[in-house]
Amino acid sequence: MLICGMGGTILTLWIMSLVMAFLGKLFPEKPEKKEA
Amino acid sequence: MADAIISGLGGLTVGFQVLAMDWRNTVMLLVGFGLLYLGIKKDCEPLLLVPIGFGCILANIPLSDVMSQEGFIRVIYDAGIATELFPLLIFVGIGAMTDFGPVLARPSMFLLGAAGQFGIFITLLLALAMGFPQLDAVAIGIIGACDGPTAIYVTSKYAPHLLGAVSVAAYSYMSLVPIIQPPIMRLMTTKKERETVMKPLAKPVSKTTKLLFPLVITILGGIIAPKGLPLLGTIMLGNLMRESGVVSRLTKASENEIANVVTLFLGLCIGATMVGSAFIKTETLIILALGLVAICLDTVCGVLMGKAMRVATGGKVNPLIGAAGISAFPMAARVVQKEGAKWNKKNYLLMHAMGANAGGQVGSVIAAAVMLSVLAGMGIIR
Which residue from A minimizes the CA distance to B128? Predict the structure, then answer.
């Protein structure tokens, strides 16, 4: 239980962190274009 | 005539007779007053402790029928707690209120949110070792999520007889985070570690990423741990509404009207489960003690993960932020900021701690979901 629970939680959140980091790079914040 | 008057007056004194016969109701009336005092005078989670305290008083007045089959609180209980609906509606509101931007700016903070939940599993084992039945141990362990709605959801589903004790422990310890955490944080870190200055987070998060976050987390989390999908789905629905910006009426209703009404009903129902004969037991004291242990262990594990990240980044992480990996949002982050500034006035840990704290919000739901799915896999629950 301890291994599955703690391992499962950290693994799930680690996968989520990797996916979100990837999405963050894929869709970076673009600076607003200044009007001329 | 005289007999009728005496019998009639006797009917008015039955309540006092019953009160005198069972001291436990009197004690619980005092507990109700204590909860009201904490909420009103000490400002400890007043939105919950006031209805819980009053519900406790209502249920412990002798011959009270508020929780009998047709009692008004029983009707609310059956509609919203027995069906697990209330905690889920609260979660929509939490999702609508929470800005996950700080954790999205630095996704590694999810790991602190994971470590901040380890107390759940260690406490579950402790409860099993102390002889609690498996499902009761699950409900006790979930206090370590430091997350009221999650604790109520799991307990009402698997150990409804412990709902009062578990809910009071969860909300009381959440409000005591500023007292519980700092000594552990100091004990677990060196002066040098506490003084570490972390660079400010400069990375902004795009709207697309913020929009994709609730969808990705729901699908990923739902596939990995489907038993927790109602918890994860509702918090992420609230967050999607917030980030989309196109349903502001629904977002506002979720975080205000719906959350307020449900909080009132939830508090009343929890308080009404604290009937003397069911609440005053050695078991309740053990549950309260184990709940405290769970939150202490969360803090220890969070800080240890902070230390591991410090090693991995070559000393760039202040391990104090690990303590914010619990779900008490944003209180735990404020505690970290205050503690960090105490040791180094140039230290501004708030945004980093908010990241860990937002990670803890997701972490507590994921930990509960993983626990339920693992238990289902083991055949302990259906």
Answer: A1
Place of tokens 């309260």: B288
Instruction: Give B371 to chain A, closest Cα distance, Å.
Output: 6
Query: What is the Cα–Cα distance from B239 to B7, expressed in whole angstroms?
Result: 61
Count of Cβ atoms closer than 10 Å to residue B78 Cβ: 12
Search chain A and give the residue with CA nearest B126. Answer: A2
Give me the tens of pLDDT residue by residue for chain B, a chain 382 residues long: 788 888 888 888 888 887 888 899 999 999 999 999 999 998 888 888 899 999 999 999 988 889 888 899 999 999 999 998 999 999 999 999 999 999 999 999 999 999 999 999 999 999 999 999 999 999 999 999 888 899 999 999 999 999 989 988 988 888 889 999 999 999 999 999 999 999 887 678 999 999 999 999 999 999 999 999 999 999 999 999 999 999 999 999 999 999 999 999 999 999 999 999 888 999 999 999 999 999 999 999 999 999 999 999 999 999 999 999 998 888 899 999 999 999 998 889 999 999 999 999 999 999 999 999 999 998 888 7
- Is the pTM here over 0.95, yes or no? no
Q: What is the DSSP letter of B84?
A: S
Interface A:B, Cβ pairs < 8 A: 103
Instruction: Give the whole-angstrom CA distance, residue B47 versus residue B36.
Output: 10
Structure tokens at B25: 């109701």
Considering only CA atoms, which of B251, B233, B250, B234 is closest in space to residue B242?
B251
Inform me whether the C-beta atom of residue B372 falls under 8 Å from chain A C-beta atoms: no
Q: Which residues of A have a CB under 8 Å from any CB of B?
A: 1-2, 4-6, 8-10, 12-21, 23-24, 27-30
B228–chain A Cβ distance below 8 A for any pair: no
Closest CA to B271 of B4, B35, B105: B35
B358 touches chain A (CB under 8 A): no
Tokens 């307990």 found at: B155
Q: Is some CB atom of chain A closer than 8 A to the CB atom of B204?
A: yes
Q: How far is CA B25 from CA B37, B104, B381, in A?
A: 18, 49, 34
Rounded to a whole number, what is the distance in Å from the CA of A34 to chain B's nearest CA?
18
Nearest to B231 by CA among B295, B154, B302: B154
